Amino acid sequence: MGSNYSTLSKIPNVDDLMQETGFTPAHIVRLYDRFNALDKDKKGHLSPQDFESIKELAMNPIGDRIIGAFFTPGQEVVDFHSFVRILAHFRPVDKNRPRDPNTPEPVNSRTSKLRFAFQLYDQDKDGKISRAELLQVLRSMMEMQVTEEQLESIADRTIQEADLDGDSTISFDEFRKSLEKVNIDHKMSSRFLR
Amino acid sequence: MLATLLLVLSSVSVAVTDLYVPETSARTERALAAAPVPSPTAPLHISEERSDAGIALARSADWHEPAATTDRSEPSHHGGGYKIVQWEWSYVQTPYIIAIWILVASVAKILFHFSQRVTTVVPESCLLILLGLVLGGIVLIANKKQLYQLDPGLFFLFLLPTIVGDAGYFMPSRLFFDNLGAILLYAVVGTLWNAFCTGFSLYGAKLAGMIDEKVEAGMMEFLLFGALISAVDPVAVLAVFEEVHVNETLFIIVFGESLLNDAVTVVLYKVYISFVEVGPGNIHTADYFKGVASFFIVSIGGTVVGLIFALILAFATRFTKRVRIIEPLFVFLLVYLAYLTAELLSLSSILSMTFCGIGCNKYVEANISQKSRTTVKYTMKTLASIAETIIFIFLGISAVDKSKWAWDTGLVSCTLIFIFVFRAMGVVMQTWVLNRFRLVPLDKIDQVVMSYGGLRGAVAFALVVLLDGDHVKAKDYFVATTIIVIFFTVMFQGLTIKPLVKWLKVPRSTSRKPTINEEIHERAFDHILAAVEDIAGLNGYHHWRDKWEQFDKNYLSKLLMRKSVYHKGELWEVYQKINIRDAISLIDQTTQSSAGRKEQGGNVLSSARLSLPSMASRTSFSEVANVTNYLRGNESGVCLDLQVIDMVPSGKVQEETETHHLLTGNLYKPRRRYQAHYSRHFMTVGDKERQDREVFQRNMRSRFESFKSTRHKGKGRHKKDRSQKKRKGSDAKEQDVNGKPRRNVSWQDTAVLNADSEEEKSENSDPEKEEDVGITFVARRADEIPKQGPKSASVSLETCQSPSVMPPSPTCAEKHLPWKGGGGTLPVCVSMETTKIIPIDLQQAWNQSISSLESLASPPVQAEPQHPRVAAICRQEGVRAPGGRFQFPSEEEEDAQSPQQQEMQPLMCSGRPPPQAPLPNQGTGRRPPNFNPCVYLRSLVTAPPPGSEPHSRGPTQL
């Protein structure tokens, strides 16, 4: 498709990006279009406000957290490359392409998918999900009729269940262990990014 | 339609009876009621005459005829002498029978759904066919002859349109157009492939001697049969697929295919019929080309007719503002007319109706009032549901007919095998082609479901019954085979497709119960994925869709939507910008006025917080060291531990179960599980909208909170504008009084009202209750206003010169009626007067606001979000839960709103300030707004400016 190539040539370092994220040119073009559509003022980067104007996100219980995940602390904007890199977490793992053991772990591996989810909980980035952090997520994910007591009881149970070293927080390892039986690749992969 | 017709008929009959025998009519009715239920044989006997005529006349309305004849016989019936009690059966016969049938169908549905277990295992369509078989058997035994069958005329003119109309109107159009390519391929190529292959293979089987000699059919007849048996049926597919939870893409492909293949079926059917009639020898090459040409004419023509009617309908609903009551009628009539017109021009009527529904939906939904919307929805669903029920029952009944038992094992088994094999082959081949182009390939499971889900149904039956027995000698065999095919596909495949999907989808058995962690995190993953797909625009993002949306926005919407509605669409877009500016000013106000308000403000603040502990937004919650909450939290933690220790294992298990129960019941569902799904029977919209509303409110609130916290340092920037925008200012203060930003979250309005007024009493009541209380309170309040006089809140009003609290010329009734309506939705009781008065003033307000927006950095215009779901939410909820919309003291809306106050009523009732138009009586500041209790109240709870005495508010709180 000719238009694809002309679009691709507009993106700097597109080959590196594709190499790094494993996206096909079609994906990149599509994401680029989307990026530009979100970037209403044509600034070349996205601000949190651009994300917030996505209507569906306003209906997502943890939408704002996910928006936050696109921004590294202290940085108000995200450019196309970071945008794509973050979305690359959600690319399904290619089953038939054997991974070269020498290359670094791909961004869409199980661990990095989990880490992405983990940092949504771990807002203070101390590597642990504290009770308060868990409560915040729970509060936004549970319906309003659930009382605070119930929320706290759930949070306590959750921590109790996952906490292995008894520090009343969930570390990333504990987080990963508690989800050992879950098919993360299935759950955290968008079939649209195949 | 059927029901409407029935109503018309019965009302006419009543009128006629009145004409003939005015004195006896009442008695007649009583007599009828008292008379024993008509024995089954009586109606059957009399209906004989019409059922014969009905079968013969294809796709034409011969339907009124019996009624007409019986009408003519009426005078003679009444001729001899005066009778006190008369048996008027022949007179009411037709509508009576119809009504009885509908009743039977409805009762059957009730009975089926008594047992949850049965309906989850056996699709309803199967049960209905079985019921039909039983009923048919009864009729046959009682009468020795089957009197009923699915009459093609009735089917094509009344039953099918209701189903197709419903499907088209409520089609998830985005999904539909996303997959249009695939749908078209399956519908056109797939159906052609099925038709030809089945036809030729049957002919081959006949030549090979597998089909009995008695079946007198040549190649053309078999091709004809192949054409009518090959089309996947929309009625059957929907009935079964609705209960099988396949992914939405798959659903829309199969569903869309079943609708769009009508054009192919119609053309093939007609072409073959004409070929059969002239005889195979007389067909010229040109005829084949004519056939191809007619396909394009039929399909494109049908679509165009549908779209034309969609345009007309959308345009017409622009002007129904004053005749709300007939809005639903317009929708039904024009959609139905689209169908009939296509039928009239022998185009594809299903295509026409589908596209009429798809095309008009957006504009009609925007134009008509909330009540009309509900009416349309319910009526369509009711009609479609009942039509489907009747179709399946009659399919069952039709099968119990000796005349149709022209059985030929070879033909039946060959047909069954061929349609299944060719369907599967076609699906695999087409999917292979499609997957080369699709971003989201259809996997093997999808293909299996698609092949297996190729159900045949009533369309095939009606078409085969329509065949002319003189030309198609093997008609009886074909009819019997069609019935078997339908029964097999609907019953066997319908029954087994669910286990099949389950078995395919979940290869690994998960008997293990998920841990709490898994349950929570997995749900979080679902949300994350949904959000990421939204961000990446992966739910179908197309270049041409953007173009279309542009065109739609620039031209179509302008033409087809009311100005008011149209303008609102733009507002969502400016919302982000405006929200920020407004927030800046709000913080400004906050810090400015905080000192003067501290004493009582603090009080209210804590009470509000306390009353809504679980709703406290992130930041505020963590910031405010709310002692009570912490205490309570610790307490419960301790309790929990104690229980865990003390309880015997069973107790712990039980608690765990409770936690699980709580989690499964109350975790928000991820978007994809409920969105964009068409269902004929179930309207679970309420649930979804409630969730959306809640989430939306929370998000907006937290966004605002975080915004406030980041921008707090920038306070005091906009001092100079305060005086100009007092209304805003007071609004802002009021929000701060309660320590909660309620800018975007209007449900809080009511909650706060309550907290404000009844802070001592109901500090910890739950939000829902509060809302109700809040409303009642409002009602009382309105009456008391005059007494409160200069003290309290009105002081602030006057000081502020707030023009916005002034309603335009409320009449007495208007003042009271809205809240006398019981606190549900605010009734539409704004007088025409109001509607007339506002626009001019609004025009000014609008202009002012525009200019102020441009020139001042003041708390500017507020925008109403135009997210359709949000809009739907607030429209639906009205006052009781006025959440879901941004609660803005908006001027911008005014312009939009005023010309149709009436319609916007439920939307605006929750906290919308009335127009800011300067009115003569505004100085008094005491008149309650006629249609907006919350606005009034809000002005009441508005904190007085620093100068006025803050304590005076106390006594007014009642």
UniProtKB/TrEMBL annotation, chain A:
CDD domains: EFh (cd00051). Keywords: Calcium, Cell membrane, Cytoplasm, Lipoprotein, Membrane, Metal-binding, Myristate, Nucleus, Phosphoprotein, Protein transport, Repeat, Transport. One of its GO terms (biological process) is protein transport. PROSITE patterns: EF_HAND_1 (PS00018), EF_HAND_2 (PS50222). GO terms for molecular function: calcium ion binding. It is found in: Cell membrane; Cytoplasm; Nucleus. SUPFAM superfamilies: EF-hand. Residues 26-61, 109-144, 150-185 form the EF-hand domain. GO terms for cellular component: cytoplasm; nucleus; plasma membrane. Its main location: membrane. The keyword Transport applies. It holds the Pfam family EF-hand_7. Belongs to the calcineurin regulatory subunit family. CHP subfamily. This is EF-hand domain-containing protein.
TrEMBL record, chain B:
Residues 709-728 have a biased composition (Basic residues). It is a multi-pass membrane protein. Residues 1-17 form the signal peptide. It is found in: Cell membrane; Recycling endosome membrane. Coiled coil: none annotated. GO terms for molecular function: potassium:proton antiporter activity; sodium:proton antiporter activity. Residues 698-774, 881-958 are annotated as: Disordered. Its main location: membrane. Residues 102-503 form the Cation/H+ exchanger transmembrane domain. GO terms for biological process: regulation of intracellular pH; sodium ion import across plasma membrane. This is Sodium/hydrogen exchanger.
